[in-house]
Amino acid sequence: MPSVEEVQELLSSHLSGSVETNGLKMIVQSLEILEHERTFTAVFTVAVKDERWRVRIPSDRSDMHIFDGKPSPDLVTSIANMLRIQLVEWWFTKDRERQSARMGERLV
Fold first, then answer.
1. Which residue from 11, 25, 41, 57 has the fewest beta carbons nearer than 10 Å?
2. What DSSP state is assigned to residue 77?
3. 3-state secondary structure (DSSP) of residue 8
């Protein structure tokens, strides 16, 4: 069973760096994985324009398979892609949806 640090490393290799879509350029500066009993939360530090944010994205229960045995590269890629999609959705909805607004905090 991979440790939290190993899962974090697996996902970081897919999520670190620049994310560009729909005119948005977001730099993922760090990723931390916080494990709960049956889920985990991905905590990103991102830079967009002149702003830095900490964003918490909760996982789906099915994503916990990444902690089972040796996760397949396809599973890791799939979970990383889903987290990237949710991160971009958060950016575009944070000013309009309360749930999205609660997921992020602006850093100084």
1. 25
2. H
3. helix
For the chain, the residue count is 108
**Tens-digit pLDDT profile for the chain (108 aa)?**
899 999 999 999 999 999 998 889 999 999 999 999 889 999 999 999 999 999 999 998 999 999 999 999 999 999 999 999 999 999 999 999 999 999 999 998
Burial degree of 78 (CB within 10 A; 0-12, 13-18, 19+): middle
Decide: residue 90, CB within 10 A, 0-12 exposed, 13-18 middle, 19+ buried: buried
d(CA 32, CA 24): 22
Candidates 83, 88, 93; CA nearest to 15 is: 83
